[in-house]
Amino acid sequence: MVHRTHRHRPEGPCHFSLMSLSATRRLLLAAAPLGVLWLAVSWAAGWWG
After folding, report:
1. Cβ-Cβ contacts under 8 Å for 42 (sequence gap 6 or more)
2. Distance of alpha carbon 20 from alpha carbon 18, whole angstroms
3. Which of 15, 31, 12 is nearest to 23 (CA)?
4. For position 23, what pLDDT does the model report?
């Protein structure tokens, strides 16, 4: 049986905090949905030919 030594923080979900991520990861997490949205809009508008 494996005993885990970490404690769960009551104020947030386990293992996920934007402040614990590096600046690059935060930037990617913010830019990825915007990029997908931009691609969807540009495709729907017929900018790809």
Report:
1. 48
2. 5
3. 31
4. 81
* Residue 16, phi then psi, degrees to nearest 5: -140, 120
Structure tokens, 26: 């935060």
pTM to 2 decimal places: 0.46
Q: How far is CA 25 from the centre of its chain?
A: 8
pLDDT tens across 1-49, in order? 566 665 655 555 555 566 667 888 888 888 999 999 999 999 999 887 6
Residue with tokens 């005993």: 3
3-state SS record for the chain? CCCCCCCCCCCCCCCCCHHHCCHHHHHHHHHHHHHHHHHHHHHHCCCCC
